[in-house]
Amino acid sequence: MPVSYSLGAHEPLAHRLRTGNAATDERQRYAEEVSDAALDRAVAIGADTVHIACYKGFGLEHEKDTIARAADFAARARKRDLHVSIYVQGAPVYYETFLAETPEAADWLVTNQFGQHVPWGFQVFRRYMCLSAPGFIEYQQKMIRTVVDAVGPDDVFMDNVSWNPPPNDCHCPCCQRDFRRHLERTFGDRLEDETGIASLDHVEIPRTDPFFYPPDSFRLIRDPIHQESVRFRVQSLRRYLQAMYDTVKSIDAKMTFGCNAGCDHFRVNTPYTSGQWIEDIDAATDHWSLEEFAFRPRVEPDGSVVSKARINKVAEFYGRTIGRGMWGEATDDDRRVTIGEALTFARGRIGGIGNLAAPKGYFDGIAPTLKWARGLQEKIAAGRIVAPVASLRLLASQAFVRFAPMHYGCMTEQALLEGHVPFLIATDAIFDRLDEFSVVVMPNMPALSDRQVELLRRFVQRGGGLLLIGQSATTDERLRVRTNHPFADAFAPDALDSLLEMGPPHFVPRVDVSRLTHTIHGELGSGKVAWLPTLTPTSTVQWQRDPYFPFRIVLPEEVRPPAEATELIQLVKAVAPWPFPVEVEAPRHVMAEYRRDDDRLYVHLVNLSTDAAARDVALHVNEPVAGEATVHPMDGKAFSVQPRAAGQGWRIDLPLLDRYALVEIAVK
After folding, report:
1. What is the homologous superfamily of the domain 389-575 according to CATH?
2. Under DSSP, is residue 260 helix (H, G, I), strand (E, B) or coil?
3. What pLDDT, on a 0 to 100 scale, did the predictor assign at position 357?
């Protein structure tokens, strides 16, 4: 995979003018973005892809000039051996022009629980379309065939594929019918056993009280039918994407299809709010992106470390390489930090850089760095990921327990990043892939099905390590309390006796993990288990930020390692069946990623601080090495370092890490 990046501007002129996001010379800027000079600039800095606006949802007739502009641009790009990616719209439409062209589309609009159509946030001239409406799906398939025929792109990228949060989710007759069918498939003849009701005849998509009990005030979602409304939205969004994917592949099997998988995916309960769950999106696309603009890599004035690496940590779990893009980096140093993090975690796939009408001189300072990276591209992209640790994000826990699993996940992942632990972020698919990992970390993931429990127990019994944090594994997938914890037999006989309690208002058992006053350790078969009772935020959780929506989102300033970060990392290593192949000793603002092939270890290091170089960085290699290590520093010449024996392994010292370095280690 080459070191690659793309340039492009995805918003058509009509959108800029209607939103007011335009300069006084916007028409001139719009023309310059697709000029030969812009394309030549892309070639000059080594871009391999250009991205261009093609369809935004105004209607095919209204946007015929936009499509023609994209076709002309693509033809000139191909003459320069550039790949072309086109931007198309997913869910919202500009209803004034769209309905003028397609009057029957009035039946495809989302209808919320109040019988109203739903605007696209502040852009009241846009409205959500129902992703389950057959007419809208057919229109979108027609749109794809039309623009692909006109432009002939290499890639189709669809933006804004989402449902709207309740109470503005869709309650149209089509969705009500499909929801009942979903319930029939899910429960079958166990409907009454699972839900307490015997008939679905009068079941509707759940409605909520918008004033006293708004959707985001729900701390727990226990009602199985309410839970299934979340899964229904996730699955219907996946079906919509699958229809678009199949349309693209029916035209050209080599053409790729991708989408925007959402904003702030790791901080927001996206299954509940937007129907977006990364596992289902990944299954229906060739690639996807996540908007995490708050996480431009940097070190804050208070020393807090901010990184986009978690995007790549989950992408690697699916075998994907995701470029994150460069947007808003103000200085060349900031831009080099972003490039360094992309080289470290994205195998050199930087993603989009600004746009074709970037300010004069935008690329001048980083052009040498991009050239240096292209020269090292084979080594930067080499190797398979080394990630013996999996930190879990599970659908039932994240969707039905509104805040704590997200917050614990963010804190745990940040601790692992700053502690240089080799890990990936894994979703429910891990239960069919547990043999790929040696340690599983559950950051407050209470909901496990019986099947997941059994597979996880087998994993530990065969020698795997398990770290439970908070309420993990205390309920089934419906949040029904397990009166016998599935890993109780790993600990001392009386270790968990005090955790069960009965109390008002419903007097059903519940688990109070706060009664665990310290971490407990145990063994199950050949594997080790530890239970860390709680994580203490090192930043103040802003409960007062919104009295109606306290469980909606983890704020960026809350994504910090917990007070127990050191203990957490020690526990991960303690339950691991063997040492990690490489361990990095470095300041916490240095990020590390690890890959290997048959006879090489590749350790990627990036210093996120622009204030000073990182000093006294050391690599501890826990397997035999074969000769000198080679260090490839950003914008510099490679040099060799002689490993020295240290304990049971080898130590490689780097006295200085300015921005990024690839350390190549030959192993026996």
Report:
1. Class I glutamine amidotransferase (GATase) domain (3.40.50.880)
2. strand
3. 58
Look at domain 582-666 and name its CATH class: mainly beta
CATH superfamily of 4-291: Glycosidases (3.20.20.80)
Q: Give the start-to-end residue ranges of the domains of the chain.
A: 4-291, 389-575, 582-666
Give the tokens for residue 41.
Answer: 């600039």
- Most distant CA pair in the chain, distance: 76
Query: What are the residues whose beta carbons fall under 8 Å from the beta carbon of 638, sequence distance 6 or more?
Result: 630, 631, 632
**Token duo for residue 176:** 């009500």
| Count of Cβ atoms closer than 10 Å to residue 578 Cβ | 10
Could you tell me the pTM of the whole model? 0.96
Pairwise CA distance, residues 6 & 394, whole Å: 33
Question: Encoding tokens for residue 4?
Answer: 């690659």
Determine contact, residues 601/621, Cβ cutoff 8 Å: yes
Instruction: Say if CB 594 and CB 312 are below 8 A apart.
Output: no
If pLDDT is split at 50, 70 and 90, which confidence band does 548 have?
A: very low
Q: Which residues touch 185 (CB under 8 Å, ≥6 apart)? A: none
DSSP string, 295-309: G-SEE-TTS-EE--H
Distance of CA 40 to the CA centre of its chain: 33
- The answer to whether the beta carbons of residues 38 and 48 sit under 8 Å apart is no
In sequence order, the 6+-apart residues with CB closer than 8 A to the CB of 556 are: 267, 294, 295, 306
Give 391-450 pLDDT, tens digit per residue. 999 999 999 998 899 999 999 999 999 999 999 999 999 999 999 999 999 999 999 999
Q: With contact defined as beta carbons under 8 Å apart, do 455 and 518 qualify?
A: no
pLDDT digits (tens, 9 = 90+) for 435-455: 999 999 999 999 999 999 999
Residue 486 carries which DSSP code? T
Q: Is residue 94 within a helix (H) or strand (E), and if so which, with residue range? A: strand 92-94
Which of 178, 168, 434, 454 is CA-nearest to residue 317?
Answer: 434
CA within 13 Å, CB half, 392? 31
Q: What is the pLDDT of residue 10?
A: 87
The pair of three-digit structure tokens given for residue 503, joined into one six-digit string: 């109390």
**Arithmetic mean of pLDDT, 645-650:** 93
